[in-house]
Amino acid sequence: MTPDFLTAAFLAGLLAAMLRMATPLLYASLGEYLSERSGVLNLGIEGIMSFGALTGFLTVYFTGNLWLAVLVAFLSGCLLAAVHAVLSVTLGVSQHVSGIGLTIFGSGLALYAYRLVIGAPIVPPQVTPFSPFEIPCLCRIPFLGPTLFGQYSLTYLALALAPLLWIYVYRTHWGLRLRAVGENPEAADSAGINVFRVRYASVILGGGLMSVGGAFLSIAHFNMFTPDIVAGRGWVSIALVVFGNWHPLKILLGALIFGGIDALQLRIQTIGVAIPYQYLLLLPYLVTILLLALIARRTSHPAALLTPYRRE
Amino acid sequence: MRLALEKRETLPFRIHLLLPVGAVGISFLLSFVPILCAGANPFTAYSYIFYGALGTKTSIVETLVKTAPLILTGLCAAIAFKSGFYNLGGEGQFYLGALTAAALGICTGLPPQTALPLIIAAGFAAGGIWAFGAAVLKTKFRVDEVVVTLLSNYIVIYVVSALLDGPLKDPRTMWPNSPTIMTAARYPLLLGGTRLHAGVLVAIIVALLAWVIMRKTTLGFEIAATGANPKASAYAGIPVIRTVLIASFLSGGVAGLAGVGEVSGLHYNLIEKISPGYGYAGIVIAMLGELNPVGVVLAAFLFGTIITGAQMMSRVTGVPVFLADVIQGITLLVMLAVLILTSYRIRVSLDHLRGAHIKRGITTEGTEYTEYLDADLRR
């Protein structure tokens, strides 16, 4: 092992990569959290992220406008999630199967649209992605400065989103309604809360966030769209909501830990450890399953999760 | 306008048969949109899909060869879903079956007469044990099987990729492929000069067996009862946990067989992308077949047709071949919506637009009354 393994530069790089890797997971898991808080599991997350990565990429490809791309990705995620809302909230079908249907549809549509618009060139087209936004002054702090304050704007937003969501869910009138709908829709309904409206809003906004997570991959983390760009990050995000025990700040912690594992496996790869790189790539998935087995008994999901609400 | 769902009487069986047909029809119509976006005529596109899949003897064989793994992954999802165990790991279990067939198929020490039966049994066991593991996590540790089975797909695929880069790599090529399996490990061909192999028969036989198990045996009854209502089943004395564990093993095993078929019947070696998402397509097929093994065979044939025909359709019309995936997704979503309408009907109410608010109740004398209030009292 090279002695420079634990140098300050290595650690600073690891920390910076951890924040970067955690960003798409944060958008996706907080979006999933919002949806599940209202009682709706959204397994369409993987397809929504894929589609968001595509719409974000195409917007930059044609306009060069990065923030417009974020907006377009957000809206396209809302649109796909609305399909899930109609099926699972209005019609009350199995949320599992509806979500999987949405994932198959969203991923398929992303590939279809990419082939239609871009074709199948040997060298995939690239866009100019987001460049890190260095916060003035702060980023000149030695060691931590460039790491913490030299990130993408979307990363700062993602980090801010967790506490904002916490305030929304636990400290506002609207959050109280949201929790009521997710825990006991009958009681919420008799208290005058429109269960359907709250669920629609949460599922749709949640889908928008997931989609931004996908777009982060194609217009910040990478600078192109590839068919397997999401690579199971959606499923990991669903697991993160379980780890976080349906609490935004714990989800933030979980996303950082997993961003860290992802960053670490990338660095072990580049150091050239004699382990096939595939075993490092599967590490996050394996750790997720093991941790789920350890903590699943101690978690408590919103009581009405997976249960469609029907007014009698 | 306000929509509400009302319970309705159970539909007769013959209408149940029409549901998937209706769902496919609606999905085909909805898929006009992406085809039109590609600047093609939908009718031309569909006719090339069907011509490309069923127009010649070779294309029919190709369709059947694609249908076989889809039948098996469809059964994988159908058996598991029927028991209430959401096994979404068909893709990984498929790869494990394929890996087993490739690993055993190059062991020249195996006696030729028993090589193929051994591979089939081992491939079934490999897929089965993987799904069984997820079922143990669900029943013993209360881990949601959905996340576990989805994530475990990636683990298997990366392990397969690592093995194809290392110990299983064919030293004679530069590609990440396994060496060719021995002749004794291959499914016999059924029709000279074509790729039609005995794996297609295996798939149909497994579907018939699944039908017998689900319809005629105690196990089948226990699986259906557990899936429909685990609490009531446990109360009625059905060993619910054991039933889920058995169903998960059978489910994963059947997906493993699909992987065996692709190696032993078609490719004769293991390649990195041996499944173009057969495991996920199985979920669509199971739902379209209403979790009935016979329905699964029919739905698998339909999607075998679409996947095969999409190639020719794409070459002729320029519509991307991924139309097949889009149709799969739409079909699953439409089928779900159609299924719910078998037990509920949609009631459209316009009352609140007129400002009327209806109050129903029972008077102190016990008679029902309906009161129409002019003002809209909604909050």
How would you characterize this protein structure?
The complex is a heterodimer of chains A (312) and B (379). Chain A has helices at 8-37, 45-63, 66-90, 95-117, 144-149, 153-171, 173-183, 185-190, 195-221, 233-243, 248-271, 277-281, 283-295. Chain A has a domain at 25-135 and 151-231: ABC transporter involved in vitamin B12 uptake, BtuC (Orthogonal Bundle). Chain A has 312 residues and is mainly alpha-helical. Chain A is built from 13 helices and no strands. The N and C termini of chain A lie far apart (67 Å). Helices cover 70% and strands 0% of the residues of chain A. In chain A, α2 packs parallel to α4, α3 (66-90) packs antiparallel against α9 (195-221) and α10 (233-243) packs parallel to α13 (283-295). Chain B is mainly alpha-helical and 379 residues long. Chain B has a domain at 59-299. Chain B is 66% helix and 6% strand. Chain B has helices spanning 13-30, 32-37, 42-54, 57-82, 90-105, 112-141, 145-165, 198-216, 218-228, 230-235, 240-267, 278-288, 293-317, 323-343; strands at residues 2-7, 344-349, 357-362, 368-373. In chain B, strands 1-2 form a two-stranded antiparallel sheet. In chain B, α4 (57-82) packs parallel to α8 and α5 packs antiparallel against α6. Chain B is globular. Classes of the chains: A mainly alpha (312), B mainly alpha (379). At the A-B interface, α3, α4, α10, α12 and α13 of A face β1, α7, α12 and α14 of B.
